[in-house]
Amino acid sequence: MLNNKGFDLWADGYDKSVGVSDEDGTYPFAGYKQILNEIYNRVLTNKSKAVLDIGFGTGTLTTKLYEQGCQIWGQDFSGRMIELAKEKMPEAKLFQGDFSKGLVDELKHHRYDTIMATYSLHHLSDEQKICFIKEILSLLRDGGCLYIGDIMFETWAELEKYKTLIGEEWDDDEFYFVVDELTKFFPQMKYEKFSFCAGLLSIPIRASRDF
Ligand SMILES: C[S@@+](CC[C@H](N)C(=O)[O-])C[C@H]1O[C@@H](n2cnc3c(N)ncnc32)[C@H](O)[C@@H]1O
After folding, report:
1. Any residues with CB less than 8 A from the CB of 209 and at least 6 apart, and which?
2. Sequential pLDDT tens for the chain (211 residues)
3. Do the beta carbons of residue 194 and residue 35 sit within 8 Å?
4. CA 169 – CA 82 distance, rounded (Å)
5. 118 in contact with ligand 1, CB cutoff 6 A
6. In this structure, which CATH number among 3.10.20.90, 3.20.20.70, 3.30.1390.20, 3.40.50.150 belongs to the domain 4-11+25-204?
7. Cβ–ligand 1 contact at 59 (below 6 Å)
8. N or C, which end of the chain is more exposed by having fewer CB within 10 Å?
9. Do the Cβ atoms of 152 and 177 come closer than 8 Å?
10. Does the C-beta of 147 come closer than 6 Å to ligand 1?
């Protein structure tokens, strides 16, 4: 599992390596650009203003929303990723912190129209994911939505199938989403598949807050 220093080292070459994997349609980033575009369109369609990005990386998605006038908050543990994102979004409120320990205090005091996490939460164990998702859902305004775009499989059987097919390149240190498992905890969650290894989860918050 990469720690913050590992991400610091990857930061300057990150966009390029992700782009190559996505364009080749290979694990792990097949479907990446499509997922980010989809979230971008939905955030603007919903007229979201306040956006929180968990593990924003180089700010690929949030920079586009920033340029459209969204107010951006974010948390990432890599100092270099934060520097790169900050250059593109000087007014964004970007904080350094390890989300396996929860959100930093500064982010807990706001409410958001959209919270998003793309290709970041697979660094949490399955149990940690559930706790953390509950924590961030509580920060959404009524009518808001949480989007999780990531490496994801519908069932354990599907994950195992691709693990075998991908072989040595499969990263055993990461905890990919299994949709069937999460549905039990978040029944209002919607899943959309974007490639053999990637999907988008949306968890909307209704006025009744039924979670
Ligand atoms: C694969 S990158 C994804 C970046 C961006 N969201 C995207 O879609 O391109 C994962 C990001 O999550 C951050 N990250 C990973 N584990 C983290 C943790 N435990 N706490 C905070 N940030 C973390 C990394 O520093 C990195 O910027």
Report:
1. 142
2. 789 999 999 999 999 999 999 999 999 999 999 999 999 999 999 999 999 999 999 999 999 999 999 999 999 999 999 999 999 999 999 999 999 999 999 999 999 999 999 999 999 999 999 999 999 999 999 999 999 999 999 999 999 999 999 999 999 999 999 999 999 999 999 999 999 999 999 999 986 555 4
3. yes
4. 28
5. yes
6. 3.40.50.150
7. no
8. N
9. yes
10. no
Residue ranges covered by each domain of the chain: 4-11+25-204
Distance of CA 164 to the CA centre of its chain: 25
- Which token pair is 169? 């390149």
pTM of the predicted model as reported, rounded to 2 decimal places:
0.96
SS3 190: strand
Name the one residue in this structure whose structure tokens are 């934060």: 82
